[in-house]
Structure formats: C-alpha cells, structure tokens
Automatic annotation (TrEMBL):
Residues 5-56 form the PAS domain. Residues 155-376 form the Sigma-54 factor interaction domain. It holds the Pfam family PAS. InterPro entries: AAA+_ATPase (IPR003593), AAA_lid_NorR (IPR058031), Homeodomain-like_sf (IPR009057), HTH_TyrR (IPR030828), P-loop_NTPase (IPR027417), PAS (IPR000014), PAS-like_dom_sf (IPR035965), PAS_fold (IPR013767). Keywords: Aromatic hydrocarbons catabolism, ATP-binding, DNA-binding, Nucleotide-binding, Transcription, Transcription regulation. GO terms for molecular function: ATP binding; DNA binding. The keyword Transcription regulation applies. Transmembrane segments: none annotated. This is HTH-type transcriptional regulatory protein TyrR. The keyword Repressor does not apply. It comes from the Bacteria.
Length: 458
C-alpha cells in the first residue's frame, strides 16, 4: 500500500479524467482516484483495504477485471454495466517486479455512456435516412413558428391561404377529419387584418338543428321554452369584426343554409325570437369532408350557397397522401409530448417504417393521439414496432379468395388488387411501386397488362 500513500501520487491520480483502480498482486484494493469515485459512486473509504472478492460478494462491484488479470497475468478489457444503466470500459493491466512477481493491477475506468448514446443516435439517424431514401421521402418539410408543418403536397395550399388571407374572400376548406382544416382556418385568420378580433369556430355536425341556430344567431329573452331570460348573443355577434369558421358545413340543415345565405348576401341576421335585424361584419371560412357537389345532387345542400362559400376552395389532402410529412410530424409530436411528460423517447427505424406506411384514417389527430399514448406507455426510451397497437402493426394483406379458377388466375387477381390499392393510396406509380417493393417500370407494365385484360373482357 505504501506507494499510494505518498503525498505526490494521489493528487496526480486525482487529476486524471478517467477512473483508476489499483489492487496489489493478491487483489486487495490499495488505491482509487476521484474520477473512479465519481463514475461508480463508490467512496474510497468503503473499498480501500478490501479484497476484490469481498467487494463482488457484497455487491459493490458486479465482476472484477482485476481478479481476471491476476488469474490470467495479462491485460484484460471489459465493458461493464453499473448503477443507473451506465456503461463503463475497464482495462486492467498487470505490473510485475523484476522477479516476475505480480505486484499490482492498475485498472483504468472510462464512462462511455454518452459516447455510446451519441454513436447510437448517429446509427439511428443513418438508418432513418436510409428508410427515407428507400421510400423516396422528400425531407423538404417546413415548420412555421406556430408549429405548422407543411410538405410538398400542402405547401401550395398554405401559400395560397397566405396570399388571400388579407382579403375577405370566402374560403371553403375540403379535407378528411383531422387533416388540419381548423388549423388552416386559424392560420388564415392570424395572417389577416382581422387577427386582433376573435376567431370563432363551430362544428355544425356536432349539434342538433335547434342548438346550432341558437348558437349562431343568438336569441331574445324568452324566445323559446327554456331560453335564458336575458337572451343570448349569437356567434355572429361574438365574431363581429373577426372570423367565423364553420366546420362540417355540409351537415348544416337546409333551413339554416337559407339563413346563412342571407347573412352572406346582406351582412345581417335575425336572432331567434327577434323582430329587428342585426348587422354583422365577419369573415366566413367553411370546411367540409363531404363531397358538396354530391350533396347538392342529393338535394341536401343549396347550390347557391355552395357557390357563395367556395370562391376560393382549398384542399387539404389526407395524411396518407402527404407521406413526406409523416416522419417530421412524428418527430415534432414525439418531442412535444416527451417534453410535456418529462421523458425522452425515440422511434426505432422499423417503427418509423411501419408508421410511414400506415393509412392514418384519422389523419394528424390520430397521429398525435398515438404518439401521446406511446410516449406515456412505452417503458424503454426506444419505441419498437411491437409497442404499436395491433391495428397498426400488421401490414399483412388479409384477402378473401378473389376468384375460383387456377392458381395463376387467383394470384393474378390478387396482384391486380394490391397494385390498384397501392395506386389509389399513394397517388403516383413511383410511390406505389416503392410501397410494394418493385420497380416503377414493373408496376407500369403490370398496370398496362391489367388494362388490356379489362378491355378484352369488355
Ligand atoms: N400541418 C400541421 N402541422 C402540425 N400539426 C398539425 C398540422 N395540421 C393539423 N395539425 C394538428 O392536428 C390536429 C387536428 O387538426 P385540426 O383540428 O385542424 O383538423 P380538422 O381537419 O379541423 O379536423 P376535424 O374536421 O375533425 O375538426 C390539431 O391538433 C392540429 O394542431
């Protein structure tokens, strides 16, 4: 033990960034430095003078490189896991005296947790980039300061919206549920001259007819049984000077469509039970997921109102047609929820691949809900494909028997079905081919052959 008590040596050892652990030739601990204490959390007074075997037995150390060096009489390096799931690299070196007797084992201990994490992150990034390349994912996605992400298929829509925001032109946003219609309407309002006035939103599908009418137009005191004795301001009053966003306008009952038309044409309305018209100055933005032309043909939507509302139609495509946005949206919301729940999470590249190919019927809202759930329930920091709900996980085609007939015919039918599904899902032959793992030219040839078979059948 004597040399390590020398006054000059301990400060030198303590100045080293790596941990140092020294035993004598029998395995008794004779010295450690400050970095060792810091890395392992073991204090020197608890281990000095103790035999390595006792330290392993008492659970201070999981296994001993020094004892291995004593047995093998040669340098040994091992990676070990210590408390807090930290990884350390321990290199033990024997020191012999002039007679070849083992005098000391000097081990250096380096904490490589951060290094491994960085390497892991780098590998992850590389794999993610490979996945993106493989599936032709354009990484040219922008996020504005309000956290709105736009990719190749939505940028045009947002640019157009920005251009017309300053005017009062009526905008009809079309898109499936959860595609961001409300967000786009809010974006238009925020970029308009009305941004300091209220942005009021009402979902016409969520309420019975009487209630929508009362909400929109308000009512006078005692207008109907159960009405408040003080009456109530309608949203047309509250939104005055600002923007009124009517979501799911296709579900507005016909009687209210007539009243809304009057508001648009004359900028005035009659509250329920009222006798005097009120003036209003609102910008109207509407949205729907219905095909309004079909609703007009079915007699459910007024044609004159339709043309009034859709002076500027804006289309928000479903998320399955915005494949380049899926990965950035996942990252965006993963960080958002990880921050909210004070944790760290990352997607395994295979999980990302599954999610990029998922159809997302509930669009961005579904994506957000899924990410929030995964952040909350996944125990590891990395989200694996198995952590996904079963409805999302399998990409196995469930198919009913397509036809009777020879095996060749049935395989042909199945192939045609898969190709046509991929084409309608991804919108282009390139993306459809990538999703099926075949060349674009192969897909085009197969499609042509299906078309000629169809003609022959006709
Ligand atoms: N481009 C985007 N970037 C980031 N988040 C988005 C984007 N588009 C939508 N979201 C988020 O997705 C969620 C759903 O969007 P939003 O409510 O605007 O959809 P919607 O089409 O109006 O849905 P619904 O028709 O069901 O009311 C919101 O929380 C919104 O912030």
């Amino acid at each position: 033990m004597k040399i390590f008590n020398e006054k000059f040596l301990q400060p030198v050892l303590d100045a080293l960034p790596d941990g140092v652990y020294i035993t004598d030739g029998n395995g008794v601990t004779v010295g450690v430095n400050s970095a060792y204490e810091r890395i392992t959390g073991l204090q020197r007074h608890r281990i000095l003078g103790k035999h390595m075997q006792d330290l392993v037995r008492d659970g201070y150390i999981s296994n001993s490189v020094s004892l291995e060096v004593i047995r093998e009489r040669q340098p040994i390096t091992r990676v070990q896991t210590i408390k807090g799931n930290r990884k350390i690299v321990v290199s033990g070196n024997p020191m012999f005296d002039e007679n070849g007797t083992l005098e000391y084992v000097i081990s250096s201990v380096r904490d490589v947790t951060a290094l491994l994490r960085a390497k892991h992150a780098e590998e992850q990034l590389e794999r993610i980039l490979t996945v993106r390349k493989e599936y032709f994912i354009d990484v040219d996605v922008h996020t504005d300061k309000a956290g709105v992400l736009t990719g190749t298929n939505t940028r045009q829509c947002y640019r157009l919206a920005e251009k017309v925001a300053a005017t009062d032109v009526k905008i009809l946003i079309q898109g499936e549920t959860g595609t961001g219609k409300t967000l786009l309407a809010q974006f238009i309002h925020d970029n308009s001259l009305r941004s300091a006035a209220p942005f009021i939103s009402l979902n016409c599908a969520a309420m019975p007819e009487g209630l929508i009418e009362a909400e929109l137009f308000g009512y006078t005191p005692g207008a109907f049984t159960g009405a408040s004795s003080r009456g109530k301001e309608g949203l047309l009053d509250i939104a005055n000077g600002g923007t009124l966003f009517l979501d799911e306008i296709g579900d507005l009952p016909l009687s209210l469509q007539a009243k809304l038309l009057k508001v648009i044409e004359e900028n005035k309305f009659l509250p329920l039970g009222g006798t005097r018209f009120k003036n209003t100055n609102i910008r109207l933005i509407t949205a729907t997921h219905h095909d309004l032309k079909q609703a007009i043909a079915d007699g459910k939507f007024r044609e004159d109102l339709y043309y009034r509302l859709q002076v500027m139609p804006l289309d928000l495509p479903p998320l399955r047609k915005r494949q380049d946005e899926i990965s950035p949206l996942l990252t965006h919301y993963l960080n958002h929820y990880a921050k909210r729940y004070n944790t760290e999470k990352a997607l395994h590249p295979e999980t990302l691949e599954v999610l990029i190919h998922y159809k997302w019927p509930g669009n961005i809202r579904e994506l957000m809900n899924l990410v929030e759930r995964l952040v909350l329930i996944t125990e590891r920091s990395e989200i694996l494909p198995n952590d996904l709900p079963e409805s999302i996980r399998p990409l196995v085609a469930h198919s009913d028997p397509y036809s009777s007939g020879s095996l060749k015919q049935q395989v042909g039918d199945l192939e045609r079905e898969l190709i046509s599904n991929a084409l309608s899902l991804y919108g282009s032959t390139r993306a459809a081919a990538a999703s099926l793992g075949i060349n674009q030219s192969t897909l085009v040839k197969k499609r042509q052959s299906f078309q000629s078979i169809n003609k022959d059948k006709m």
